[in-house]
Design goal:
Helix content: 40-55%
Low-confidence stretches: 236-240
Strand content: 15-25%
Length: 240
């Protein structure tokens, strides 16, 4: 039994608390919301479980209720390239769902996570009938475009401090990831996986960013103190 099947078998109806963590539901009219809630399922993903894989057909539009996922792909040399992390409140794959095309990336749980899924037919029904849902998806696509442009810039950065700062800024995006708030629950090892640096180097970068007053390292996570600073270039000439 592969991981995809076991995660699929662990699907279940969402609880009321889990529904409250889905940011687009409150944008729907009552009848549309009732239809969406009836179609939503959640799965309890274990660390290492794949939510979707390259080449698989799209069947759901997914979101993170709790936990942390990473979006990545493997190149011809077998090396993994990580595009971004997906923290709580984040929904992803709307472009793939719109075109009903196979996935071009892998989504994998970095830790125990609760993942919600809206079946592809209900996703398209809401696009056809709900203005609020349309606006949410349009905002998602617009923010996602900016996110991937920023990701390309991050890949070209030689300064690890800046690389970590920009990567953190992307995870604190209030539009894409409204469930994060001011504190991101993430370990240094998880951040290292997402950034593509060693845990030791990430630790040094976090110390530098904390010294500059941009973040505060707390037990079990990171608190952002100056999101604008993380997004800017002020760290390009600082740190090693």
């Amino acid at each position: 039994m592969n991981q995809d099947l076991s995660l699929h078998q662990r699907r279940r109806p969402p609880t009321s608390q889990e529904l409250a963590g889905i940011p687009w539901l409150h944008l729907l009219l009552p009848a549309d919301r009732e239809r969406a809630v009836a179609a939503l399922l959640v799965g309890d993903a274990k660390a290492g479980d794949y939510v979707c894989r390259v080449g698989r057909p799209v069947t759901y539009w997914f979101g993170v209720v709790e936990g942390l996922l990473k979006m990545s792909t493997d190149n011809a040399q077998g090396q993994t390239m990580t595009f971004t992390g997906v923290p709580p409140g984040g929904w992803f794959g709307e472009g793939t769902a719109l075109k009903r095309e196979p996935y071009r990336y892998n989504i994998q749980a970095l830790r125990k996570s609760i993942v919600a899924g809206l079946d592809i037919d209900t996703f398209h029904w809401l696009l056809d009938h709900s203005i609020g849902f349309n606006r949410f998806v349009m905002n998602q696509l617009n923010e996602r475009l900016g996110q991937f442009i920023a990701a390309r810039e991050i890949d070209r950065l030689g300064n690890p401090d800046v690389r970590v700062a920009r990567s953190l800024a992307s995870l604190f995006n209030p539009v894409l990831y409204p469930g994060v708030g001011e504190v991101l629950r993430i370990t240094q090892q998880e951040l290292a996986y997402l950034v593509g640096l060693s845990r030791q180097r990430v630790n040094e970068a976090l110390a530098a960013l904390e010294l500059q007053g941009a973040i505060r390292v707390e037990y079990g996570g990171l608190r952002v103190l100056d999101l604008g600073a993380l997004r800017s270039s002020i760290f390009q000439w600082q740190g090693g």
